[in-house]
Amino acid sequence: MNHGIRQAPFGSGGLQPIRFWLPLGLLLAFVVYLLWAEHRVHFIQFLPFLILLACPLMHLFMHRGHGRHGKGGHET
Q: Phi and psi (nearest 5°) for 70?
């Protein structure tokens, strides 16, 4: 017997997304905690290298807004 109650499809809101994302988020938080607890020293050891890696990456992404080099100046 249905009694006129319709269930919402998966993508239309309701509880289905919570049933998927909440356990997934808890699992990921648990995995991150375990990795941090066990490998904290190794992570902190490589922080200076991550900062050095960030410099060329920022250079590449931040020079996007300069326009085309050699194609002229501002448009008038």
A: 85, 5
**8 Å CB contact between 16 and 10:** yes
User: What is the Cα–Cα distance from 18 to 76, expressed in whole angstroms?
Assistant: 53
Separation CA 19–CA 52 (nearest Å): 41
Residues 6+ apart with CB under 8 A from 17: 10, 11
pTM given for the model: 0.42
CB 43 within 8 A of CB 36: yes
Distance between CA atoms of residues 8 and 52, nearest Å:
50
pLDDT digits (tens, 9 = 90+) for 42-53: 888 888 898 898
Residue pair 8/14 in contact by the 8 Å Cβ criterion: yes
